[in-house]
């Protein structure tokens, strides 16, 4: 993997979107996503202001070679320059060259293909530039929108975990998805 790329200012452009690393002055945007109860229903609890600021600070600090460090990128529409959500990733296992992706999209922008477009750009970066071998993603089984994005990316459902997580004091089934780098798929055929 070309991990040195993670120390640069990551940014991607798609047909409709600009995607770039969040910076210190993006906390209000991060707060908007993470404080939305409907959006966080299948993601995690609403954090206290102090906890949320601490989470944000870990997400924007430069990558220092640490496995499991999430990097968060904001998604901005090109035509209106509006913030609509975020995508992020972490190197889940350096030796296995495996990355995990995650994403959040404000409700009013859901259903327009924005997240699929943004995650496709992220997946292309992870495979073509960073050269990860595999991308994984996880979600609550009830989060239909999330696993549908994973499937649109070509990810395969690799696991179904019954009563695997607790969110907002309720037990949930979880799903695990994976996608191998094209170079590995071509090699295995």
From TrEMBL:
Which residue spans traverse the membrane? Answer: none
Top-rank lineage group of the source organism: Bacteria
Cross-referenced Pfam families, in alphabetical order? Acetyltransf_3
InterPro entries membership: Acyl_CoA_acyltransferase (IPR016181), GNAT_dom (IPR000182), N-acetyltransferase (IPR051531)
The record places domain N-acetyltransferase at 17-182
Kindly give the PANTHER family that the UniProt entry links to this protein. Answer: GNAT FAMILY, PUTATIVE (AFU_ORTHOLOGUE AFUA_3G00765)-RELATED-RELATED
Full protein name: N-acetyltransferase GCN5
